[in-house]
Each structure stands twice: as C-alpha cells, then as structure tokens.
Amino acid sequence: MSKPPSNSVVALHPAPLETLVIPAALDGRAGSNRAPGGVAQIAAANDLDAIRAWLARFADRPATFDSYRKEAERLLLWSLVQLGKPLSSLTHEDCLRYQHFLGDPQPAAVWVTGGVAHAGSGRGRKHPRGDARWRPFYGPLSPASIRQATVILNVLFWAGAGRVSGGQPLALSSQHTRKVAPRITRYLEPGLWQEVKDSIAAMPQDSPRARAHYHRARWLFTLLYLGGLRIAEAGGNTMGQFFVRRDVGGTMRWWLAVLGKGDKERLVPATRELMTELSRYRQSLGMTALPSPHEATPLVLPIGKTAGSTASTPTGAKAGDTSRPLTRAALHTIVKSVFAQAAQRLRERGGEDAARAALLEQASAHWLRHSAGSHMADRQVDLRHVRDNFGHASLTTTNIYLHVDDDRRHRDTDEKHRIDW
Residue 383's CB: how many other CB atoms inside 10 A? Predict the structure, then answer.
C-alpha cells in the first residue's frame, strides 16, 4: 500500500473525502455486499474509489456534485466511524439506523460543526474542508432533508457504488424508495411557497421604480410557477407566443408556445390566472392588456423598459433595443433576491422559522418549476398532463384525438393548478 500524502487524515474520525485514508480492513475490498465473480458496475476495487468514480459523473454540474458528495461522504464516514464497517458491508437495518442518525447526529462533538446539535438550532459556522474544525453536519436534518439524502443515496447504490459488483442494490428502504424516488426534493412545500407569495405582496410600491420591481417580480414568479418554465425559457421566449384557439366545445383557450431545452417546442396551458397576471404586468408597463400575434416583446422586461411600440409592432417586425430580454443571470438575480427577502422575513420571526429561512436561501429559480410539478401532482392533476406541461407535448401533431387530449389537459391544469395571489 502506497504511503499516503503528508496532508492526508488517517481514519477513523470524520474527514473530507479528498483527505480520507481508510485502513485496508475497512476499505470495502471484501465487503459483504460484493458478489464474487459478479459484473462490476463501477471499475473500482474499494468503496472510496467507487464513490469517487460515481461522483466523477457529475463533475460538470457543480451544484449536483456538491450535494451528492455531501451525502455520500456522510454515509461513508458514519459507516466507518460509527459502525466500524465498510460501506459495502452495510445492511438494510444499518441504513434504517442511519436515517435516524441524520435526525440527531450524535455525538455532536464528532459530527457537528461547533459540537452542538439541537433541533431548530440552524446552521453552524461553515469551515473550509481542509480546516481541522470541519465536520460533516451543521445540525440535525429536517424530515425533508432526510428524504433528499435518501433519494441521493439510493442513486448511489443503484449506480453500484455501494456494492461495486453483483447482487441486488442496497437500498436505504425499498418502501421509502418507491414513495420518494420520483419526487423532486428541491421544492417549496405549500406553506413555504405561501411565505414567498406574501413577501412579494409586501414589496414596497411607494415609487415608480419600486412599483416596477413589484410588478416584475410578481409576473416572473407567476410565469415560472404557473407555466412551469425554466429560467432560460422565461428569458428566451416572447409575449407574441401567446395565442388563443377554440376547443372542441367552443371555449376559447389561451396557450403559450414555448421553445425550450434542446430547441423542442411544447404547448403550455395559459390558464385564466396566468393571462390575468400577464395583463396586469403589461398594463403596469403602459401596454395593451393582451399581446398581438408574433409580438417581439420579451416575456420579462428590464426595469424602465416598456417595449416602446412593441405591442403594436406588425407581424415580423423587430422591436429594437427596447425589446432586448433580460439575461438568464439577471432573471436568476431577481428570483434569488425575492427568496432572500422572504427568508429575512422568516428569520426575523425566530424559532423554527429560522430553519425554513435557511431552506429558502438555498432555493433557486428551478425550485419553482419543481414546486409547480409537485403541487400539481399533489392536487391530483393527471400526471400525463404534468408531463406534457413540462416539455413533452408536440406542436406538429394535428391528430384530432390528441387535440382533445390537449383540451382536457388545459381544463385540468386551469381547474387544479393555481397560484392564488
């Protein structure tokens, strides 16, 4: 065995993956979940190398990499330090114990930054990963965070990093997996979503610029939530892509034709609420309530821009600088500032709201898309309709039966997916 580098930390106490050295007896080479002669899913001879190989898949996605590394690291360290056994020897019962441990990581001096782990205590001070004071936890995990950790670790085990070869995947809980694996964990539960809406409603409107900020924030959050749009779609599409058509029953329904990820087109139901909020936003800018066909006005405008004569621009005409869309980064900044504002309101209340504030501070624009999908499913919107709203409907289809399905999807979405300002 080669000599470890001088800056390596010798197990067995919690240390970051990049400095962790595991004794041969615990490195998983002979883990009980390995099947001799099985086909390796990851080319790694021990548990640590298997985790590193798995994480390498996400190297180009920093946020995902950090989240996945955190959960894999915590489980590996718990297995080594708390149980004194390799990761690839964990049993189903061990993993159930680990779920309980996440809710109260003890002893706190070993696992928690600052050595204190009290429910509701919030996040401790963050230390660099190379600092001797670094610990894997900042405090107990909330039930939602435990569910998220479970989902990530089941991804790890399904990839083979928990067993390396042969046998069945070591799932944390097969029953729990069936329930939570399809669920998106980066979302706002209804109570927290209401806090965000309340925060937007409380934004100052005592000056023209403040009113413009309020109307834009309200419209952007409406668009991302009711439309289920990605942030890039909010910046890359125009108001002229709203259109109206009559359904088979004679009812006029509005739609938004979205050019999305991978240059794929889809139809998003423009519900009555969405169209009301669009009209509200446009009128706050001095524009007509409804867009004209092929209008070049961006879906969200910079402050101080009213799109000039864009609302009456003839088909095919260009609106000029006044119709320049906000960048993806600018839209992200607006969303993050609203979340920060809502988090500050929660933090000022103290108590359990401090932990909810910490969650909001982690939220991004994509959480609104996840939240919309989760809330639609919770309200029993047909999952096929949720799927199509989020990117699987085709604009090239003219089959009458699929048209009927579109109408049903619009009605289902309109009736059950609401923002309720």
Answer: 12
